[in-house]
Amino acid sequence: MTSWQQGQALELEITDLSSQGEGVGRWENRVVFVPDTVPGDRIQARLVFIKPTFGRGKVLEILEPSADRVRPACIVADKCGGCQWQTIDYPAQLRAKEQQIKDALERIGGFKDVPIAPILAASNPLRYRNKVTYPLALSAEGQVKAGYYRKGTHQIINLNQCPVQDERLDPLLAEVKQDIQKQGWGIYDPEQGTQGLRHMALRIGRRTGEILLTLVSSTWDLPEIEALADEWKERYPNLVGVCVNLNGNKGNTIFGSETRFVVGRPYIEERFAGLRFYIYPTTFFQVYTEQAERLLGVIVDQLALTGEETLVDAYSGIGTLTLPLARQVKKALGLEVQQEAVETAQENAKLNGIRNVRFQTGTVATLLPKVAESLGGPPDVVLLDPPRKGCDGAVLAALIELHPQKIVYMSCNPATLARDLKQLCGEGGYHLRQIQSADFFPQTAHVECVAFLVA
Q1: 3-state secondary structure the chain
Q2: Is 243 a catalytic residue?
Q3: 1: pLDDT strictly greater than 70
Q4: pLDDT one-digit tens code per residue, 261-300
């Protein structure tokens, strides 16, 4: 075998994309991961990290571009870490995401001939994000910057617009940081020990146009914040509220536990699946409203509810899926660990006049074993939408013990989905009827999918 050294230059053909969004090439039976490449590219790359069987490279030159390589919509796409795939033609992005799911189910789950429905492509792969959160920093010249981190660093790429966020947010991104500059507020810097603003968060109701601006700060000491907030509200007619969230922790968590509204109201209203939802600064809500609604439509079709079922929505959040489904069942129960989310879900249920649903606060692992007692019998349907790490073993064990007739497992991580499905379809005896994927995150490697299981 020939030499394999860090710093070595190699000529590679990129053949695949990894689940992390990097191009994959092969050299002398070794795998080489190269960011910013497209399947079909022929490149020269320099090895920047090596192990015996794989390495990571950096593009030195694109010798022959792929037919799927396109010009990015963003002028800083090669620097910004917000998107990985703006150089990849959208149909090729979709093919890569479908392959990612298929590979995970086969390699991790052990499934063969998986019934995967065609991915739900986004009608618009740009301008879709209803929520953005930008870290703030000072440039070397002392100017306030807002944007995403440069790939692999904590250096902020300053942005005045972003092609994947709702275009109605662009003016605020460009102008609010200039107002912060004029106000003279500090910008948080843990290395220098400087207190001040850490992030600027923007939310918009895609259907209502309502905008909420939240400043995340390590201190409440923001002189004349009320006057500036009043000015913003007058300048931006769709801005319904300005909030400040306090986060004095040293970690990377964006939001702290306390939020105060300065002017207006601390939430936007959105329309989703024919219902009204209040969404607060720290509320989880899918970033692509229209795609989430389409996927919900598939869930409704697959469940074919009669109106006599009992349904449990584990990890229910603010009731985004619970409430539309509750209208089609006899009774529904949502389980959610965050008390604030439960209170918002209850508020949203009342807002829409939905009375056959309850929400409980606690971990799913603790609450799920008790739902039969709470409902007067085991549920007919359980909906799962866990975080990226998937379900804890205790959750899967409780689910197998309850043995509902139908399970709907929604996931943003094909690897952990495949792992959990292996247990549910093995020890649990369930049959995997179908996988439906949807592109919630165009221009990135992330994909959402739903597994439909029957007992």
Answers
A1: CCCCCCCCEEEEEEEEECCCCCEEEEECCEEEEECCCCCCCEEEEEEEEECCCEEEEEEEEEEECCCCECCCCCCCCCCECCCCCCCECHHHHHHHHHHHHHHHHHHCCCCCCCCEEEEECCCCCCCCECEEEEEEEECCCCCEEEEEEECCCCCEEECCCCCCECHHHHHHHHHHHHHHHHHCCCECECCCCECCEEEEEEEECCCCCCEEEEEEECCCCCCCHHHHHHHHHHHCCCEEEEEEEECCCCCCCCCCCEEEEEEECCCEEEEECCEEEEECCCCCCCCCHHHHHHHHHHHHHHHCCCCCCEEEEECCCCCCCHHHHHCCCCEEEEEECCHHHHHHHHHHHHHCCCCCEEEEECCHHHHHHHHHHHHCCCCCEEEECCCCCCCCHHHHHHHHHHCCCEEEEEECCHHHHHHHHHHHHCCCCCEEEEEEEECCCCCCCCCEEEEEEEC
A2: no
A3: no
A4: 999 999 999 999 999 999 999 999 999 999 999 999 999 9
Spell out the domains of the chain, with CATH numbers in brackets: 9-64 (2.40.50.140), 102-122+287-454 (3.40.50.150), 131-272 (2.40.50.1070)
Catalytic residue among 83, 162, 243, 412: 412
